[in-house]
Design goal:
The chain is an alpha/beta fold. It has a single domain (about 1-130), classed as Toll/interleukin-1 receptor homology (TIR) domain (Rossmann fold, 3-Layer(aba) Sandwich), CATH 3.40.50. Helix content is about 40%, strand content about 15%. Helix 4 (about 50-65) links the parallel strand 2 (about 40-45) and strand 3.
Length: about 130
């Protein structure tokens, strides 16, 4: 549901369970996807909030600093949870119930990005922004 809604904005959505093939180097594929992304969406649930891979992906996105927007989507956890990643404490989290509003915000950022790109590049070479989920 989340990926489909983000896809509908025109964002190129990377999802590890869908976009990594058998035999691929998983850490490398995720690292490359995060590096290419302009936004990273992290879904934190009771099952994922303390997982090593989730924290590694968050850390990889965080390393890029101001180059990445990291959005935390919460389902069944809060920022007060003791296992909530400390590096995301200052990021405004989005409750899953408010995800549609977040999609509207992404749509606005996509429009602004397309307008910026169209001023710099010929119309036939518009870039598609990537979002890692």
């Amino acid at each position: 549901m989340m990926c489909e809604k983000l896809d509908a904005t025109g964002a190129a959505v990377f999802r590890d369970d869908r976009d990594i093939d058998g035999g691929d180097n998983i850490p490398k594929k995720i690292r490359v996807a995060i590096k290419k992304s302009e936004e990273v969406v992290v879904l934190l649930t009771p099952a994922s909030v303390g997982r090593q891979w989730v924290n590694i992906e968050i850390g990889a996105a965080w390393v890029f600093g101001d180059l990445k927007r990291i959005t935390v989507v919460l389902y069944g956890v809060s920022v007060d949870d003791p296992t909530f990643p400390q590096i995301l404490k200052d990021v405004k989290a989005v409750p899953l119930n408010d995800f549609d509003q977040f999609v509207i915000e992404v749509t606005g950022r996509r429009k602004a990005f397309r307008a910026k790109v169209s001023k710099k590049t010929p119309k036939k070479t518009k870039k598609k922004r990537a979002t890692h989920v």
